[in-house]
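lol ok so funny story. i was supposed to be doing the assay writeup but got distracted and ended up predicting the structure for this chain instead. priorities right. anyway since i did it might as well share w the group, maybe its usefull for someone
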Amino acid sequence: NNAKNLKMKKLINSGENVVVEMMEGIVLMNPLLQFIKNQNVILKRDSNPKTMDKVSLISGGGSGHEPSHAGFVGKGMLNAAVLGNVFSSPTPSQVLCAIRAVTGPKGCLLIVKNYTGDRLNFGMAAEMAREEGLKVEMVIVGDDVALLDGENKENAGRRGLAGTLFVHKICGALAESGKDLEYIHKIAQQAADNIFTIGIGLSSCIIPAVGKASFHLEDDEVEIGLGIHGEHGKYKSKLRSADEHADEMVDILMKNASKNTDLKKVVLMVNNLGGTTLMEIAIFTRRVVNQLESKGIEVLRIFSGSLMTSLEMQGVSLTFFVPFNDEVKPWLDYSTDALAWPNATRDSIELLPSPSSRDSQFNQTLVGLDTLSQIKKLAKENAEGSFDCAGWTERIIKKMNGVTSELTRLDGLVGDGDLGINLEKAGKIILSHLNEFPKDPKAFITALALILGDELGGTTGVLYSVFLLKMSSKLKENRGKTYLDWANSFQEGTNGIESLGGAKIGDRTMIDSLRPASDQLAKNISEGKSIKEALENAAKAATEGAKSTIKMVAKKGRSSYIGDRAKGNPDPGAQAIAYLFQFASEEFK
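and the output, tada:
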């Protein structure tokens, strides 16, 4: 598994279209499903919010974890799954679309893995849905014990891993039996608090849009305590026997699972991370069960298979679910027709005809205006403007395309390596529609926010979008007549990111370059310096801020999962901000 020279070898057509083409195939392979055009939402084929008389369940996240989450859409589990790009969370508009499509009077519960992008995007969608009068609750699942609570009080916290699927299953049983939203939300949290997962990786994986392995392992090395996004684990270890690795993982899980309870019974999940043979899974499972029984712990159920993968990564995650009441076992045994759930009992079902295309039965008015329609509406209402926002934006984007490979390299060192690629992709879409953007600068910024929120994806997408929306809101408030008004709007956008993401200077995030740059801009303008000089000084402040992250240990975001191993290079998010300010300064005319 020497990943140093590992090149991509996949049955795909292009890295850009893998998610849509995969979804088209999924609904053809399972006639009980459908998906909503252009929104990356897979849902039960009989979904109708007008006749829905039970609580609906929605989950999702980045693609690349198949069968999660689309494979768990079905009676007795999820009503809908929202799929982002590979290893990138879906956008707020996509999640909102799913909420609208399946939520009836009883409301819906969003089941979200604890990743910054998922929390922010699902959380924003929940707030938007509540504004529309829909009942929405959200539970965050963080079952990863590699990141101990004591080490992460100021960090991103425990990651959500395969144990999240137990929450899907239990909540699905409760919803199907008619329980109300408040009760299901309470039980979901109790379940999440009693789930513990640890993973081991024998190889890296290759993200289609990146085309190369996300990290390198020697033939005799493994990563212990890794997530599901192709990132490094907590630490490297030498490859040992299956029994030895199983014993190590059982010990880690028992240490965590027995903290607040007398561990007597456990439900197991042995999850294939993608490229592990059934032979290896069986050998590993055998040792885990033997170890637990030798310690006097009863194994109530064993769920195994490829359940939440990391593309083709060789490896396995092990989950302990500690029953918190006597009803857990019957909830897990409750019938479901979700095809990916192992050991599922099945009702007799009447198969519906396979959809002829990926188009859903839903009318587009149900899910709202698509982004381009919103931009055209903004342009019609804001046709006047004195500053050439489109020209400035075009020049900045073209320069940003020149640093795609560097941002990809930096992001690959600490995460999934898609930041540069996603920025370039979003930039292409902006350029292709610039002639349709509104002329008024305030509306122009709103249009940028809409596209970046939809197309950039992940944590970066929602944070960039929030920054621009906060900017636009401030400009509407102060009318944006002076450069100081604009500088103040930059600070408002930065405040918005800090408030939503919880990061501050010193956490090794984009804030380390954005905050000093926006403060420098406002300071220079208030001192009477020209806008050109103020932008140049802001760019210098952003660059210095990005450099300062080289020696930092990350406290927020995905970099925080690998501790000291992130040091030695600038944070990719901070470096991207530094480039944006640099090019904005150079291209201002």
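The chain is about 45% helix and 10% strand. Confidence is low (pLDDT under 50) at residues 149-153, 344-368.
back to the writeup now i swear
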